[in-house]
From TrEMBL:
Species name: Gossypium stocksii
Residue span(s) of domain Methyltransferase type: 10-70
Family matches, as CDD domains: AdoMet_MTases (cd02440)
GO molecular function: S-adenosylmethionine-dependent methyltransferase activity
Descriptive protein name: Methyltransferase type 11 domain-containing protein
One Pfam family, short name: Methyltransf_11
Coiled-coil positions: none
Length: 95
């Protein structure tokens, strides 16, 4: 994904001129100073993390005050789906 993103950036002059960096890192040990990042995006990734709670704590650490985290994941509902997640299905079914 990083290679593909890098190729995309190379094709867009405005992105090449912007302050953007692609970094490969363990989400539980991010190589950024505390409070140094404006935004974090993790699209369709949370279900892949070995410890989502550790990852969220680490993302919280690096975000500046007022920073934004946008994350998503895939959920599969079965009879064993934890009760705390079930309202998400109801919300999504009503849209």
């Amino acid at each position: 994904m990083l290679r593909q993103c890098n190729d995309f950036i190379k094709q867009d002059a405005s992105l090449l001129a912007s302050n953007i960096a692609l970094v490969r890192a363990d989400v539980s040990r991010l190589p950024f100073s505390s409070g140094s990042i404006d935004a974090v995006h993790a699209g369709a990734a949370l279900h892949c993390w070995p410890s989502p709670s550790n990852a969220i704590a680490e993302i919280s650490r690096i975000l500046r005050s007022g920073g934004v985290f946008v994350g998503s994941t895939f959920l599969r509902y079965t009879s064993s789906t934890p009760w705390i997640i079930r309202p998400f299905r109801e919300t999504m079914s009503n849209k």
